[in-house]
């Protein structure tokens, strides 16, 4: 026991029925168990504290990034619009390789605008609209939307659900999550493969009267290396050559 909580059990067994445990041995084992339980609890508390610090650090970075984005996005986007319009006009007056150069420049302007949009998404918390949503239907809609893109790279997406799964959630935000995850899965399988979106109801073991909605997106990609996994939610962290990490 540690702080009135059961940490674990020590089970003793004997290979001979005549064996007995002495009181002195029992007292020593009890003392050892108490010290071990405190050590286990301290290790768990330390791990929780480290995870909490990581989450707080990430939240601080996101907040700072959002404030920066909100402050500069308007000032940057106005000249970007003018640059893009001018490039489009000038591109119609030239031919050949020069025209391709203008198209490349317009593409770079669009990439900058995409980065700004990603930054603004960090700053924009928005209002959560809790509505009744059928997760099975929502994932099937997302799969149908991306099916054509998947087939272009010889990939197959399928949605699996045994029954409707009703939850209260923001359907637009959930749809964005599913789109991002499936698109990342497609990017991880440039040579093709299979993506399964599996929706199931899982019982809550601690509260038998309630249950969880579980959604798993499974792909044939190489997976994320363990040393990279802890950084995937950090702004501007990416392993993609064309990615922004937003």
UniProtKB/TrEMBL annotation:
PROSITE patterns: HIS_KIN (PS50109). GO terms for molecular function: ATP binding; phosphorelay sensor kinase activity. Keywords: ATP-binding, Kinase, Nucleotide-binding, Phosphoprotein, Transferase, Two-component regulatory system. Residues 71-246 form the Histidine kinase domain. Pfam families: HATPase_c (PF02518), HisKA (PF00512). Coiled coil: none annotated. InterPro entries: GAF-like_dom_sf, HATPase_C_sf, HATPase_dom, His_kinase_dom, HisK_dim/P_dom, HisK_dim/P_sf, Sig_transdc_His_kin-like_C. SUPFAM superfamilies: ATPase domain of HSP90 chaperone/DNA topoisomerase II/histidine kinase, GAF domain-like, Homodimeric domain of signal transducing histidine kinase. This is Histidine kinase domain-containing protein. It comes from Exaiptasia diaphana (Tropical sea anemone).
């Amino acid at each position: 026991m540690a702080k009135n909580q059961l940490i674990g059990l020590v089970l003793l067994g004997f290979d001979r029925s005549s064996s007995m445990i002495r009181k002195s041995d029992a007292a020593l084992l009890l003392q050892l168990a108490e010290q071990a339980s405190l050590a286990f609890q301290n290790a768990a508390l330390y791990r929780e504290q480290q995870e909490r610090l990581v989450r707080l650090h990430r939240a601080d970075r996101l907040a700072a990034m959002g404030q920066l984005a909100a402050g500069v996005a308007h000032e940057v986007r106005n000249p970007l619009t003018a640059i893009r319009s001018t490039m489009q006009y000038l591109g119609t007056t030239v031919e050949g390789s020069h025209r391709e150069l203008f198209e490349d420049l317009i593409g770079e302007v669009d990439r900058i605008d995409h980065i700004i949009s990603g930054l603004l998404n960090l700053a924009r918390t928005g209002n959560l609209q809790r509505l009744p949503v059928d997760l099975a239907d929502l994932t099937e809609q997302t799969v149908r939307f991306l099916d054509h893109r998947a087939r272009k790279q010889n990939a197959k997406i399928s949605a699996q659900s045994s029954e409707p799964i009703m939850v209260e959630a923001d359907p637009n935000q959930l749809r964005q999550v599913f789109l991002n995850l499936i698109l990342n899965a497609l990017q991880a399988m440039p040579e093709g493969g299979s993506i399964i979106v599996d929706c199931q109801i899982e019982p809550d073991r601690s509260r038998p009267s309630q249950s969880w909605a579980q959604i798993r997106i499974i792909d044939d990609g190489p997976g994320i290396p363990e040393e990279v996994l802890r950084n995937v939610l950090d702004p501007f962290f990416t392993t993609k050559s064309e990615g922004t990490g937003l």
